[in-house]
Each structure stands twice: as structure tokens, then as C-alpha cells.
Design brief:
Layout (H helix, E strand, L loop, with lengths): L4 H15 L8 H8 L3 H12 L4 E4 L5 E4 L8 H9 L24 H16 L3 H14 L4
Antiparallel strand pairs: 1-2
Length: about 140
């Protein structure tokens, strides 16, 4: 499994919105500048997030985007599933139940199922707020005199 640019940029964009949530709606150009991501690329990600009720949108001079929930209510797993689709390490696990004709005698299926479980548990155990808190902690502990 390899996370695409779309997934990584969506995560960065949502973290940016979480960090700036107290300032109201945030313009896409501001996110693009802070994150050093093309505004055009972010415009391609926005519809995916809008269609999933991840964002609130406001048009006009005070327009922009904001999270529709608090940062502790978004998991990395949720965001990556929206942008990447399935996080399954092999195609036979993309449907539940497994539809592979060999699943009954496949010696490797339990390996892939275990990996898939670990991936989902790990990514679903990390929220946007966790990432923000870790980043703050990193910079707080990095202080020297």
C-alpha cells in the first residue's frame, strides 16, 4: 500500500484547518501557501471532502472552508479511505466477505487479513487532534537555551 499525494495533501489540508479553526472560515489560497501545495491541487481534493460532510463551505468575501466537526472526531483512517479508497494491502480484501475463489485454501490470506487489521486499527487510532498535539509537544520539547 502506498498513500498517494492526494491522501497526504488532504491530511495536511485538514490539519491546517484544524490548527486555524478558531479564525473562522479559511481561504484555500491561505492553506495552499502555508502548506506549500498548489491551490489547483487542493481544488481537486475539496469535492471529495465536501461530498462526505467533512467540511463546511462559505462562499463570498469571507468565504473559505472549516471543519464540520472538532479535530478529535476525524481519524487518519477515515480521511485516507475518502481520498484513497480501500486501505487493503491486497485486492482480495477490498470486499467483505472475501470474494476470491481461492480464499478457502489460500495459505497467505490470514497474513493479509492480519496486516489489514493492523493498518486499520493504527490509522483509526490517530485523530487530527493527536497529530496537532504531537506536533506541539515536539516543538515544546525542542526548546533549548
Amino acid at each position: 500500500m502506498k498513500i498517494s499525494t492526494k491522501g497526504r495533501y488532504a491530511l495536511r489540508m485538514l490539519i491546517d484547518l484544524a490548527e486555524h479553526r478558531n479564525g473562522g472560515f479559511v481561504a484555500l489560497k491561505d492553506i495552499a501557501e502555508r502548506q506549500n501545495i498548489s491551490k489547483k491541487y487542493l481544488e481537486q481534493i475539496i469535492p471529495i471532502l465536501n461530498n462526505s460532510d467533512v467540511l463546511k463551505t462559505n462562499r463570498g468575501s469571507q468565504g473559505g472552508y472549516m471543519l464540520s466537526r472538532t479535530p478529535d472526531k476525524y481519524t487518519v483512517g477515515e480521511i485516507l479511505r475518502l481520498t484513497e479508497g480501500s486501505l487493503a494491502p491486497v485486492s482480495c480484501l477490498e470486499k467483505d466477505p472475501v470474494e476470491c475463489e481461492r480464499c478457502g485454501e489460500c495459505a497467505t490470506l490470514p497474513v493479509w487479513q492480519g496486516l489489514y487489521k493492523v493498518i486499520n486499527e493504527y490509522l483509526d487510532g490517530i485523530t487530527l487532534q493527536d497529530i496537532i498535539d504531537r506536533q506541539k509537544e515536539h516543538y515544546t520539547n525542542d526548546y533549548s537555551i
